[in-house]
Amino acid sequence: MLFDPAAETARYIDSLGPEALQKSAAYTAAGQWHLLVGLFVTAIVTWIIVRSGILKRLASILQNRSWALRTSVICVVFFLVSAIISLPWGIYEEWGFERSYGRTSQSFGDFIAQDAIGTLLSSVLGGLFFLGVYALIRRAGKKWWIWSGGLAAFAVAATILLSPIVIEPIFNEYKPVPDGPVRTALLIMADEAGIPHDRVLMFDGSRQSNNFTANVSGVFGTARIAISDVALDKASLDEVKAVTGHEIGHYVLGHVWRIIFLIVFIAMLGFYLADRLFDRVAAWFGSTAKVGDPEGLPILLLIVSVLGVLAQPALNSVTRVGESEADAYSLRTANLPDALAGALVKTAEYRYPRPSALQEAIFYSHPSVETRVRRAMDWKAQQLKKAPKP
By C-alpha distance, which of 329, 326, 359 is closest to 258? Predict the structure, then answer.
């Protein structure tokens, strides 16, 4: 009997069952609507902060302080206040919604504690970044948005560089994969790709999510491959090898640099448009702030947020290419198409495997599971044709 890639792909996807597929479709669609709701929440938060005049009063209180201190405090306070106002939405979106679909088992107390840490960290880092932005506006004038690309590149590269050693350990524990067949297999794969053994780790991803996941983070000496304990618990040995092959593909092919360059371009374009739109949007909210005024940060960030959502399809298209390349790398090196397909089907529980072409183009950062499984089955068919006849 001839091997039929289309039939095998359908079999893999249908193995989830109609109930799971329906649940996945509902979860995915709701998550997409959250993008729009999130923008609405951002607009409401902007309106509240601008109309309350809290940042203007803070600027007045700090008027005798140095410009850098005044700007930093205003930016940090804005991020903290906006996080507090939007907390109910954040609790629902990041915890309540996920819990309602069985995607997290994290306790509410642990979620709030981690969210508070994340808010403090992002407020400080966000304040430092926008201190740099406002410094550029002061020094470069109307051309500040050109230089913003360099600032964005530095910020993204620094975050990616430091995240594995400073940020990620705050939220999860990273440690070597325990001794056994899995560790042995992964270290063999690491050796073949020239990856040091201490850069292949597992982490307690089950603390926050029940999703089957792995990732590559860091650059240069901090780059590493991390596999969630959820993936290690749910997957067979071959599936772990196939997934690790995919992550090694990201590592070896240097996909992180592609994303950095894209973010730099998007930042420059976003800040350029924000500069041109700022006065009009500020007037809509009743603000007299100018683009170079730190108390106008809510307006600036709202514009950038809207433009960021509009740019999402472009960013997604680039990351989909990278995911396809990583799949192909796994197939070439691990050569486990059925294991890769099996692992991918596990991700279909929270990423609907059969989206429309438009839905995939706009919202999906990965090719659909159906597309990825089909490519794995096509690879398998090619290998079967190459196999010697008995």
Answer: 326
Position 108 scores a pLDDT of 97
pLDDT of residue 389: 67
Pairing of strands 200-203, 174-176: antiparallel
pLDDT for 190: 84
Measure Cα distances from 309 to 46, 122, 150, 243, 362 in Å: 17, 19, 21, 29, 10
> What's the CA gap between 151 and 270, in Å, rounded?
13
Q: CA-CA distance, 269 to 263, in Å (whole number)?
A: 10
At 99, list the tokens: 């819990």
Q: Is the pLDDT of residue 1 over 70?
A: no
Q: 183: buried, middle or exposed (CB in 10 Å: 19+, 13-18, 0-12)?
A: middle
DSSP 222: G
Give the helix ranges, DSSP H, for 285-336: 297-310, 312-333
Alpha carbon 377 to its chain centroid, in Å, reads: 28
Question: Cα dihedral sign for 30, 32, 33, 34?
Answer: positive
How far apart are alpha carbons 301 and 271 in whole angstroms?
10
Helix H or strand E segment including 215: strand 214-217
For 246-292, the pLDDT digits (tens) are 998 998 888 888 888 888 888 889 999 999 999 999 999 999 999 99
The model carries a pTM of 0.90
